[in-house]
Structures are given as C-alpha cells and as structure tokens.
Specification:
Oligomer: single chain
InterPro entries: 6-blade_b-propeller_TolB-like
CATH superfamily of the largest domain: TolB, C-terminal domain
Number of helices: 5
CATH topology of the largest domain: Neuraminidase
Helix content: 25-40%
Strand content: 25-35%
Number of domains: 3
Structural class: alpha+beta
Keywords: Coiled coil
Distance between the termini: 57 Å
Number of strands: 27
C-alpha cells in the first residue's frame, strides 16, 4: 500500500502500527501510472547526482577525521607544551626559594663560626693569663698590670658572647609554604579550556592563493658548514615544521616561530620528504644508483630515527596516500606498501636522467603530479600511470618540488619561482627571484593557517602570509 498523507510505502505492519489514522491509503497498482513510470526513468539523473554528492561527502568526512585527529594531536601537544612552561615556572620558583634557603643557611653558619672563633680566641687569652700566673719568680708589676687588664677585657667579651650564644642557641631552619599559592592552584579544575571550531576550507582547486606578506626566517645552525639548500618541507599537527637541508645533510625541526629547535644528521644528502602519520615522515636519500627511504619521527621536540629501507633504484621524490608510498627514481615512478614492498611500477620515462624527478598526489588520490626536470615540464598522470597532460612554460625552467594542499591546490617550484597551477594548467606566480628566491626547491601550503613556506638555496626560508 501507499500512504498519500505521508508519501510513504507501507506494508501490513506499517499500516497497523503507523498509518491506521491516515485517510489516504491506496493500493500500489492504483499509483502505477504512466506519469510515474516517466518520472522513474528521469530520477536516475537525480540519483547519479546524489551518488556523486555522497561520494564527495564521504571523502570530506574521511578528511575531517584526519583533520580531527591532527587537531587532537596539536591540542595534546599544546597541553604538554603548557605543562612544560608551568614546570619551568615551578623550577624557577623552586630555584629562587632554594637560593633563599642557601642564603639563610650560610648566614647562620657564618654567625656560629664567628662565635666559635671568638670563644677559641678568648680561651687562648685565658690560657696565656694562667701561664703568667704560674711564673715561680715574682713577675714584674708591668707584666701583672697588662695581664690583669687583658683578662678584664677577655672576661667582658666572654660574657657578651655567652649571652649572645644563649639567645641564639641551637638554631635550625624550617620551611613554611605559601598557603595563598597552594589555594590558588586548588581553585583550578584544569589548565585550560577547549572549543569546537568548524573551519570552512576552500573547496575549489582553482581558487587562487592571494599573498599579503612575505618574511624571511633564518634556518642556519652554527655547525652548518655550507649554505643551506632546503629541498623539502613538511608540517606536523603541532605546527612544527621539518625541513631537509640537502647541502648540510640534515633534517631540521622548526617551532611555530620558524626557529630551529633541533636537528639530526643524515648519512647522505636528502632529496625529498612526505608525512606518513601525525608525527612521522619518510625521507629519500640517493647514493649513486641506489636509494634509501628513512622514517623519522618527532617526540618532545626531538627528531628520532626509525626504520630504513634500501632500494636498487634511486630515490628522489616521495609522496604518501591511502597507506602507500609513491617513489620517483628520476626515470620511474613506483608504488610501494608502507613496509616498502613493491606494488607496481606506475610510470616510466628513461629518455633522460631526470624525467621523473619529484612527485605529489591529489587529496582524493585520483591524480599524480610529476616534475620532468630534464625537459622543464610538469606532468599529470592518472592513478594507473596514464599520462593526461604536460605543462611547459618558457618563462619557467628546471621544475623541482611539488605540493598539493589538503584543499587540492597544486603548488610547484621552478628555478626561481613558486607558482600555483590551476585545473586548466594556468600558472600564477606566488614568489620569484625579485622576492629573494634563489634556486627554489620546495614549498608547503597550509590552507588552515594561510601560510606558504618556501625553501631554496639560502640560509633563510620564505614564509608567505595569504588572505
């Protein structure tokens, strides 16, 4: 049956439990008209649109889960950072309190030692008086007078010191905590509050990034022997940033203020890096014709070395998506599992030695981007490796690092510029040589913070604020 009051199909049970009071109940065969049949054939278009919208919504929901996890990790890290600040404050208060204790202790100790010295000196004077008194022969009047007068002075000093020692007898030190301080802490139920934020991210991959401010930040450390050459950039959930310094064979950790807070040496110069978890990255190293992928993690502001995998081919570019690693070997693009088991070779171009240099993947995993450094091209591949397009611009040479933001914007590095590439292959320059860039190699864009970080051959990175 069909309930026209609710526009619902209903069986006998539905009729009994939910539609007994309904006035318009008709048999299904009475509703089966030609008009309905025509609408049935037309509804497939609506279903297709709904399916597409559902697929997009499902993809968004998975991205939201990742973003939620990232924000959880960031909040957790901020709690630990705040706790560290509190600990540092307590450490400083403890240090000052102990210094006050030390001052009091040494003051009292010095006072007692002075009293001991005074007592010992007076004892020595009394001993000398006794020695004079024991002289068998009659001492001279002058000696007797001196001894007598000195004794009077010593007796007077002895009475004074004994009186002072009686007043200050057996001194000790006790500690009284500040009750107001303790009560202030007890009043707090937590060290902070949380708020739920719903951040609307830009959805269109063609939406242009607009720059408003550009600042250079120094990333050189005292032990660097060469000018820095930043080949790759990754941001962690706590907004810490990892950068690869090719020239000095190092990975460096930057805080939110873009200051180097830690670094780790690598066996060879690194080429590329990608995030594989909220606190872990994979980096590529090439030595001759063989390559290495090394996993690194960040724990409490320190870089920790993890697993290392070796390959019979070079390892230059690397990207991560849906539990797989994509590795560019200069002439091939491979897909591996997370334990570096080969899945397949996706793409190959052996016509030159840098035709598959760096790689990136779209958020939905449907497109792969590859830089052909030899021919100065940006390639777009389908997931199965089919070449879909080639982008060549005479104004730009030697493409390097790539980055696809979580909102789908594609950023590419060329020799002396960073550009955004839209879906039609149009390029918009975000920064260039005129802005201080030199041999640009890496870029990272966080759509949530609106920051673009650019690495090049320089002791400084360029940070662009967007609007």
């Amino acid at each position: 049956m069909f309930c026209e009051d609710h526009s619902k199909l209903c069986c006998a049970l539905c009729h009994f439990h939910e539609h007994r009071q309904c006035a318009k109940l008709v048999l299904i065969k009475e509703k089966s008209t030609e008009e309905i049949l025509d609408e049935f054939h037309q509804i497939s278009t609506t279903i297709a649109e709904c399916e597409q919208n559902l697929e997009t919504a499902i993809g968004d929901a998975y991205n939201w889960l990742k973003t939620l996890q990232d924000s959880y990790e960031e909040a957790n890290g901020e709690i630990k950072d705040f706790r560290t600040k509190i600990n540092n404050i307590f450490d400083e208060l403890e240090k000052k309190t102990i210094n006050s204790l030390d001052d009091m202790y040494h003051t009292i100790k010095k006072s007692i030692q002075l009293e001991l010295e005074t007592c010992s000196r007076i004892q020595d004077e009394f001993k000398r008086f006794k020695d004079v008194h024991k002289i068998k022969e009659n001492p001279s009047n002058e000696l007797v007078f001196v001894a007598y007068q000195t004794s009077l002075d010593n007796i007077s000093q002895a009475k004074i010191i004994l009186k002072e020692m009686a007043v200050n007898a057996n001194p000790t030190i006790s500690f009284e905590n500040n009750p107001d301080f303790e009560q202030s802490l007890i009043r707090f139920s937590s060290i902070g509050n949380f708020k739920r934020e719903v951040k609307q991210l830009k959805k269109s991959t063609n939406e242009l990034i607009k720059c408003s401010n550009k600042v250079l930040y120094n990333v050189r450390v005292p032990s660097d022997s060469r000018k820095c050459d930043i080949r790759s950039i990754c941001e962690l959930p706590k907004r810490e940033i990892l950068i690869l310094d090719y020239a000095n064979s190092r990975v460096k950790l930057l805080n939110k203020q873009y200051k180097v807070v830690s670094h780790a040496d690598l066996p060879e110069s690194p080429y590329d890096m990608c995030s594989i978890s909220p606190s872990e990255v994979a980096i590529t190293i090439t030595d001759g014709q063989k390559g290495t992928v090394k996993f690194l993690s960040v724990n409490n502001g320190q870089i920790v070395t993890g697993r290392t995998f070796s390959f019979e081919h070079k390892c230059h570019g690397i990207a991560h998506a849906e539990g797989h690693l994509y590795i560019a070997s200069c002439t091939e693009l491979y897909q591996y599992t997370m334990d570096c088991t080969l899945v397949k070779k996706i793409y190959e171009d052996s016509s030159d030695n840098c035709s598959v240099f760096k790689c990136a993947i779209s958020p939905d995993g449907t497109h792969l981007y590859v830089t052909d450094r030899s021919r100065h091209k940006l390639l777009t591949l389908s997931k199965d490796g089919t070449l879909k397009s080639k982008l060549l611009d005479s104004a730009h040479r030697r493409p390097g690092g790539l980055h696809v933001s979580e909102t789908g914007q594609l950023l590419a590095c060329w020799s002396e510029a960073v550009v955004q590439v839209d879906g039609e292959g149009r390029m918009v320059t975000l920064a260039s040589k005129e802005g201080g860039l030199n041999c640009t190699e890496s870029v990272y864009y966080n759509a949530r913070t609106g920051k673009v970080v650019v690495g090049h051959t320089s002791d400084s990175i360029l940070v662009i604020t967007t609007i």
